Every structure is written in C-alpha cells, then in structure tokens.
Automatic annotation (TrEMBL):
SUPFAM superfamilies: Hypothetical protein PH1602. It comes from Halorussus gelatinilyticus. Keywords: GTP-binding, Ligase, Manganese, Metal-binding, Nucleotide-binding. This is tRNA-splicing ligase RtcB. Binds 2 manganese ions per subunit. It is an enzyme of class 6 (ligase). The active site is at H415 (gmp-histidine intermediate).
Length: 492
C-alpha cells in the first residue's frame, strides 16, 4: 500500500485513491457512488487509515441518498460502525436522509476545556493528591452512578433544555453557556421521542465519565503558536487546563439502538439499496427521520449537561485541594465541542448552490472560521476553538476554525488522534500496570477503574496526534493555537 513513483495514486487493495493536492486523496465517483470520497491525510497517516475497513466504509457512505459535494475522512480516521470514525457527510435535509450509524452510538461524545490561573509549578508535587481527589469525586466506569441521582422530571428537563437546566439548578454560570457550542442547548429536541428505556439508563448516569476512551485530564500548556488567538482564548505557556471527554452515556447508546432497529424495519427498501446495513437511514421528511433528529438533539442536551456537571465537580475538587474559590482560580470554560452529531446547517454545495444539510460528523469536530454567525461572540473575530485530545502519553491541541474548512469539509476537522489498534489487541500487547509505570517516568499520573482500561488506552494504540494536527493546519481547516501535555488523568 504505497503511492506510485509519480505520487498521483495510492493503491489500498480494492480501493485506489488519486492525489488531488498535498494531503488530499480522492476515491473517484464510480458505480452507485453518488459523490466522490476524500481522505485528508499524509502518506504516513494514509498507511494507517488503509490498514482496516475505513476506506471501504467511506466509499460505502457515498451511497446514502442526498449526499452532496463529497464525503470526507479526517486525518484521524479509522474503522467504525458502518460509517468511519473521522467521517463527515453533508446530506440534503429535504431530498436526502439521516443515518444513526453515521452519527454513532455515543451521541454528542465531545470534549470541553476549562482554563485555570494555576501554573504547572503550582501543581508539581501535588499531582497524586489531585489525581486521588478527582478520582474519588468524579464518577467513572461502566453502569450507573452519577453526580446527580436524577428523577424522571430532571431527565425530561435536561433532555429538553440542556445547559439551561444546569444554570437554573446552580450547576453552571451564564458564562459557561456562552462558551459552549449552541450555548449548550438544542431547542429542536423532544424528550417524548426518547424511549423510556433510554431515560431509565440515563437517570443514574448524570455527571459521569463512563468507560473506554473517556477521561478527565489535567494538562499544562507547553506551546502557543498564534499569539493573538491564544490571547483571545486566554491560553499561555505553563498554564494548567482541564480536559473533559465523555458523552451521553447509556441514554445516547439506547437511542441509537432504538432508532436503528426501527429504521431497519420501516425502511427496508432503502436499506436494500445500501452496501452496508449499518448505514441504515431514514428518508428526510419521514416521521422516523424527524423523530430521530428530535431524540438525537435531546441526547445532545444530555451530554452537554453531563460534561457540565463533571466540570462543576472538578471546580469543587480544585477548591478543596488549592484552598481557593474556583472563581479566584480562574476556572472558566474555554469551549465545549461535540463529536458525534448530525446538525442542520446551511452550506454551499455543487455549482455554488446553498442547501440545508444534515451534516453528519462522526468523530469529527465542527471548525467554523472567524466571522461565522454561529461562532460565539467572544471568539467571532478569531474563529471557533477546536479541542483535539491526543493519547494520555502525548500532547493535545487547541486549534481554531480555519478559513478553508467551509469549502473543504463542511466546516469540520479531526477530533483526536484516532486508534490504530483494537481494544482486544491492546489488552494482549500491553499491561496496565506497566503503562502506568512508564507514564509516571514522564511525570504523568494515571488512575482508572481497572488495569485493562489503562491497557486499552495505552499511548501506543493511537496515531500521532502531532501529525494529525499538522495536516489539519496545512490544509487550513483547523489552525494550531496551542499544545498541551498531560499532568494527571482519570479514566473509567
């Protein structure tokens, strides 16, 4: 799987990609493909992307009715459920469809970064004290147990009003909403479209990390690149920040399961036309498409509240450890971005036509540039913050929406480093205790519910986040603003 001598094609077995320009590779439209597919990657990353079913899944996704312009795989792409993780598709909201599989099971899995006025020197020597306090106070792992043991009225309110509920209940301040994508609420949600089983699963998980690759990580800023943007974001070298990565827990998983099953039954004819049943989709305008969209938006609200409660508890932990009010510690939200989502947005498609699309971002981050009306007022002049976590042994990045993102990627960029190894294989290749010991040698402290979780998330199972971000920056879809490095990390 290497490019030819001219560098114009890349042979990945059954799929051949043609080089459009540096870091842009295209699978030309053929057969029943409705649009071409593009992969944004260096050849190093492309070698890893081509090593599983990512390219096949990307090609299959172009068969979905109503896809416009081109489907895209980000530099961190890897195999997912039907639709690749790192995939983006703009699907016509009138003539196309919406696909739960192209959103994912963990609806609005996302990340938020909270700033502090603390420096790395303030934390050195207290890493394990902070680690233990966070692990004891932030619920993590499989199953139930959250910061709020909510009743059904609370679940309904969260699904309906998102972060507005958190503000009303004292879990947030107004500035938190102002620094969250969509101000932390999708008003087109409908809790009635979420099953009782899903609500029951979510009721005892409000304010919990969950398991897998979800985490809370204390980091230090090591580098800044665009000084004016870093200043607008309030980031400087040596500063301590906190990264929170989780989603809608069992509630979102159940909603995806429910609607996939219903759509497979109700729209079998459409399913028969697709090369993979995991791409099951409801035609735009059908009652299942509308119901799923409303339920998905409710899950988005739930996930934002989930991360907000974890951030609130983190503020409380820092207050105790550093004996200061969180406000005096400068613990303000920088931004919160969603990863697994399909939102109605207006984009320019073929021949300069503007269309309302369901923009499916599965393991991809919205990356709107400066001046876009949906960028929060605080960042309107510099562009939307983008948060791209690396592994717990590597750096993470803050980017800003790039000027080329709207044209190339429906206003999107990567969401992380992207896996190169399955969890099963990781547990064979790594031992959790050894990983923790090796990380501690780098002054990174990790605590998890089990050694298996640490093994599954070993740094070696991920792509090089530096390379992922380098490609994003080179393409102008997400520009480097700052780099961070782990201090301590808790996982489920």
């Amino acid at each position: 799987m290497t490019s030819d001598d001219a560098g114009e094609t890349y042979d990945a077995g059954e799929v051949t990609l043609h080089k459009v320009r540096d870091y842009v590779w295209e699978i030309p439209k053929e057969g029943d493909m409705r649009v071409p597919a593009r992969v944004l990657a260096s050849e190093t990353l492309l070698d890893q992307i081509a090593d599983d079913k990512t390219l096949e899944q990307l090609k299959n996704s172009t068969h979905l009715p109503g896809v416009r312009k081109h489907n895209v795989c980000m530099p961190d792409g890897h195999q997912g459920y039907g639709f690749p993780v790192g995939g983006v598709a703009g699907i016509d909201a009138e003539e196309g469809c919406i696909s739960p599989g192209a959103v994912g099971y963990d609806i609005n899995c996302g990340v938020r970064m909270m700033k502090t006025d603390l420096t790395y020197e303030d934390v050195q020597g207290r890493e394990e004290e902070l680690l233990d306090a966070l692990f004891a106070n932030v619920p993590s792992g499989l199953g139930g147990g959250g910061i709020v043991e909510g009743d059904m009225d609370a679940v309904e309110a969260i699904l309906d009003r998102g972060m507005e509920w958190a503000l009303e209940e004292g879990w947030a301040v107004e500035e938190d909403l102002a620094h969250c994508e969509d101000e932390g609420v999708r008003h087109d949600s409908d809790p009635a479209k979420v099953s009782q089983k899903a609500k029951d699963r979510g009721k005892n998980q409000i304010g919990s990390l969950g398991s897998g690759n979800h985490f809370l990580e204390v980091q230090r800023v090591t580098d800044t690149y665009l000084d004016d943007v870093a200043d607008a974001y309030g980031l400087e070298e040596g500063q301590i920040v906190v990264l929170i990565h989780c989603g809608s827990r069992g509630l979102g998983h159940q909603v995806c399961t429910d609607y996939l099953r219903d759509i497979e039954k109700a729209h079998a004819g459409l399913l028969d036309q697709l090369p993979d049943k995991e791409l099951a989709a409801a035609p735009a305008g059908s009652h299942l498409a509308e119901d799923y969209y409303d339920a998905m938006c409710a899950c988005i609200n739930f996930a934002w509240v989930n991360r907000q409660l974890i951030m609130h508890r983190t503020r409380q932990v820092f207050e105790k450890v550093f004996d200061s009010e969180w406000e005096s510690l400068g613990m303000d939200l920088l931004y919160d971005v969603a990863h697994n989502i399909a939102k109605k947005e207006t984009h320019t498609v073929e021949d300069g036509e503007e269309r309302e699309l369901f923009v499916h971002r599965k393991g991809a981050t919205r990356a709107f540039p400066a001046g876009h009306e949906e960028v929060p007022g605080a960042y309107l002049d510099v562009g939307q913050p983008i948060i791209i976590p690396g592994s717990m042994g590597a750096g993470s990045y803050v980017l800003r929406g790039g000027e080329e993102s709207m044209d190339q990627t429906f206003g999107s960029t990567a969401h992380g480093a992207g896996r190169t190894m399955s969890r099963t294989q990781a547990k064979k290749d790594y031992w959790g205790g050894d990983v923790q010991d090796e990380l501690e040698q780098e002054h990174i402290y990790v605590k998890a519910q089990s050694g298996a979780t640490v093994a599954e998330e070993a740094p070696g199972v991920y792509k090089d986040v530096d390379e992922v971000v380098r490609v994003s920056d080179a393409l102008g879809i997400g520009d480097k603003v700052a780099r961070t490095f782990p201090v301590c990390n808790i996982k489920g």
